[in-house]
Design a protein that fits this description.
The chain is of the alpha+beta class and about 100 residues long. Helices cover about 15% and strands about 20% of the residues.
């Protein structure tokens, strides 16, 4: 998510936006999207997917995140490295 302005003090930065990650908290199957989670919210969650980081999840977790209604879509996922189709050799059996 882009938010801005980066600074109100310097007029050169008024048009600059900074990219911020959205944290997804899993509280026993109930997902919530939080922009600035507290340490207590992270500790209370079963799982925390902190914004700006990449996580490897299984297919069941992927489906639950998409169905969780927190803005996660299939476009948020890529093929994990080291698996079939994730290589750097183009399309087909050796590449992604």
């Amino acid at each position: 998510m882009d938010e801005g302005p980066a600074s109100w003090e310097n007029r050169l930065f008024v048009r600059v936006k900074l990219t911020r990650g959205i944290t997804i908290l899993d509280s026993g199957g109930a997902y919530s999207a939080v922009r600035y989670p507290t340490q207590d919210e992270i500790a209370a969650a079963t799982t925390a997917y902190q914004g700006g980081h990449e996580y490897i999840v299984d297919d069941a977790t992927k489906a639950a995140l998409i169905a969780g209604g927190v803005g996660v879509t299939d476009d948020n996922f890529t093929i994990p490295p080291g698996t079939f189709g994730a290589g750097g050799f183009g399309q087909g059996g050796f590449g992604g």
